[in-house]
Every structure is written in C-alpha cells, then in structure tokens.
From TrEMBL:
<dbReference type="GO" id="GO:0006222">
    <property type="term" value="P:UMP biosynthetic process"/>
</dbReference>
<dbReference type="GO" id="GO:0003677">
    <property type="term" value="F:DNA binding"/>
</dbReference>
<dbReference type="GO" id="GO:0010468">
    <property type="term" value="P:regulation of gene expression"/>
</dbReference>
<dbReference type="InterPro" id="IPR029057">
    <property type="entry name" value="PRTase-like"/>
</dbReference>
<keyword id="KW-0238">DNA-binding</keyword>
<dbReference type="GO" id="GO:0019856">
    <property type="term" value="P:pyrimidine nucleobase biosynthetic process"/>
</dbReference>
<keyword id="KW-0328">Glycosyltransferase</keyword>
<dbReference type="InterPro" id="IPR022854">
    <property type="entry name" value="GfcR-like"/>
</dbReference>
<keyword id="KW-0804">Transcription</keyword>
<dbReference type="GO" id="GO:0004588">
    <property type="term" value="F:orotate phosphoribosyltransferase activity"/>
</dbReference>
<protein>
    <recommendedName>
        <fullName>Transcriptional regulator GfcR</fullName>
    </recommendedName>
</protein>
<comment type="similarity">
    <text>Belongs to the purine/pyrimidine phosphoribosyltransferase family. GfcR subfamily.</text>
</comment>
<dbReference type="InterPro" id="IPR000836">
    <property type="entry name" value="PRTase_dom"/>
</dbReference>
<keyword id="KW-0805">Transcription regulation</keyword>
<feature type="domain" description="Phosphoribosyltransferase">
    <location>
        <begin position="60"/>
        <end position="188"/>
    </location>
</feature>
<keyword id="KW-0808">Transferase</keyword>
<dbReference type="Pfam" id="PF00156">
    <property type="entry name" value="Pribosyltran"/>
</dbReference>
Length: 205
C-alpha cells in the first residue's frame, strides 16, 4: 500500500519530469487539490494546521499493465453500459490519458467509433484553470450527431466527467451513458447521464 510519503515523492518526481499539476493529479488518480497539497509538502513535515485533503489514492496498475486484464475489464464495462442503454452507442469518448485505453477496448466491443477528449486539467500548470478549455483530438472520430458513451478510469470529484459530458453536447453529440473503473465521487449521474462504475469507493469518516 502506498503511504502519503510515497505519494509526495511520486508527485515531486513527476514534477521534475516536466508534468503539469493537472497531469500529476491524473497520474496519481487524485483530485487537483490533493495534487497541489502533495506538491507543496514534503515527508519532513507540513505547516501546522494544514491538513491533507480528504482523498483516496487508487492504484490500478495491475490492470493497466496487462492487455488481457484490461480487455476483461473493458468487457465488464461494456456489459454495464449495455444494461443502461436501449441501443448501442455510435461513439465511445475516452478521457485522456488513462481513460483512452479503456475506451478503445470498449469501442471495439461495441463496434463503435472512438473519440478522444483531452480535459483542461491536462493543460493546467501555473495557468488559471478557469481560462483553459478541453479539446477533442482530430486524430480520432468526431461526435457530431452521435450517441456517445464517455469512458474514464476514475471519477474523483466529477468535474472532469461533467466537463467531458458538456463538451460532447457542445460539439453536437448526445451523451447517453458514462462508465468508469472506479467512482470516488459517490455520484450516480452527472448532468442527467448515468455513471456506471465497476467499483464504488465510499470514504467513512
């Protein structure tokens, strides 16, 4: 099990490698607030009274490091999505970075088009977060006129999923379902779109 000190060390190592704060949050599967806290503290001590954000780190590298395990997880996600829909989707939207491999396999199982969405947190470093915008990759399918399923690895606060759902709508698509490996937010729907999760995480305090 990773300790907080290990996460701090990982965050600083990623920062030294040139990753932006938003990318670090994504790599460690923690919220933006937690990533900031990890980057501004060290294992030698923290400011008195400055408590760590309430968050849970999820390490799913045992799945991600195996194409077979990833395919099996994608099959389970596809079944969850299919139970939620009356008809199959036209496109699957993967949220970069970690949601894209899962979305690729889910799209293959649905025989659907694949779109890639880069959320604004991937671009967030020293910039004002509210001034940034997400984007679709032109190397993948568009979503105009498509019934879309949005796929990510982990929902932490729900902000990125909300952003992706709204961006699909702004670009002419209809988000009909969402699926994630793990849901830390406790939200079962976002902007009226049901969020299907293989694992639900509840923090008991």
């Amino acid at each position: 099990m990773k300790k907080v000190d290990d996460l701090m060390e990982s965050a600083h190592e990623l920062k030294e490698r040139g990753l932006k704060s938003g990318e670090i949050a994504d790599e460690l599967n923690v919220s933006r607030e937690t990533a900031n806290w990890l980057l501004t503290h060290s294992s030698t001590g923290t400011d008195e009274g400055d408590e760590a954000p309430g968050d849970i780190h999820l390490d799913w590298s045992a799945v991600g490091s195996s194409s077979r395990r990833l395919s099996l997880v994608a099959e389970a996600m596809k079944e969850l999505i299919a139970e939620d829909l009356n008809e199959e989707p036209d496109a699957v939207v993967g949220i970069a970075k970690a949601g894209v491999p899962l979305a690729t396999l889910v799209a293959e199982k649905f025989d659907a088009r694949l779109a890639e969405y880069t959320p604004r947190k991937q671009k967030w470093g020293e910039d004002d977060y509210d001034e940034l915008s997400g984007s679709f990759s032109r190397n993948f399918a568009g979503v105009d006129g498509a019934r879309c399923v949005v796929v990510d690895d982990v929902v932490t606060t729900g902000r990125t999923m909300t952003e992706a759902v709204r961006f699909v709508e702004e670009n002419g698509g209809t988000p009909v379902s969402a699926a994630v490996l793990a849901n830390k937010s406790g939200k079962t729907s976002i902007d009226g779109v049901e969020v299907n999760s293989l694992v639900g995480v509840v923090r008991v305090e």
